[in-house]
Specification:
four-stranded antiparallel sheet, about 200 residues, disordered C terminus, rod-shaped
């Protein structure tokens, strides 16, 4: 039987064993740290790529929306142009109707013995110049204009009495307010504001 005797100091052996265990733990810790760092790098890189993809998608969507907005703006311009043309046509129609009413009333209110020479209109103000067989005819004309629903405030501006061809005549100038013009303007304003009501 052989007896072995360990001549090494048991304390030195224990220190060596502990050193080895410490180095092993340090190695494992470093390995774990490296693994965590690698995992964090991969995670961050993936998140960055995902965000970049999202940014690219959003950029593409923004470009599409910008294109659609431009198309909508072009359509709005076309719509505004069409509405403007429609309003012009409506105003022309209302103006034509007002002109018909105006001349109808000029004829309807004209008594016998009154002969207009010129009719001028500026806005709603109408100036009528003509010749009357007598001043009484002019008074009757003023009354007819005043009783018409299409005129108001008739005023005699000038009257000159003379004799032509052995006949005593009166040259006159009168002014009256044309309500058919106001009716056409009201109808045009109603059309421009989107209302369909048209006043007679």
């Amino acid at each position: 039987m052989t007896t072995r005797i360990n001549l090494l100091d048991w304390r030195a052996a224990r220190r060596a064993r502990r050193r080895q265990e410490f180095l092993t733990m340090v190695g494992l810790g470093v390995g774990a740290a490296v693994a965590l760092l690698g995992l964090g790098y991969v995670t961050i890189t993936g998140a960055v790529e995902h965000q970049q993809n999202r940014n690219q998608y959003l950029t593409a969507q923004i470009k599409d929306l910008d294109k659609q907005i431009k198309e909508i703006e072009e359509l709005e311009k076309v719509k505004a142009n069409l509405v403007s043309r429609m309003n012009v046509i409506q105003q022309l129609q209302e103006s034509r109707s007002a002109t018909v009413h105006f001349f109808d009333e000029i004829v309807n209110t004209l008594p016998d013995g009154i002969y207009p020479n010129s009719i001028k209109q500026s806005g709603q103000n109408v100036t009528i110049e003509g010749v009357a067989e007598s001043s009484g005819r002019i008074s009757a004309y003023l009354k007819n204009l005043d009783s018409s629903p299409w005129f108001k405030d008739p005023k005699l501006v000038v009257i000159k009495t003379g004799e032509k061809n052995r006949q005593r005549n009166s040259d006159f100038t009168l002014q009256v307010t044309n309500l058919t013009k106001a009716s056409a303007d009201d109808a045009a304003a109603a059309s421009a504001s989107g209302r369909t009501e048209v006043k007679p």
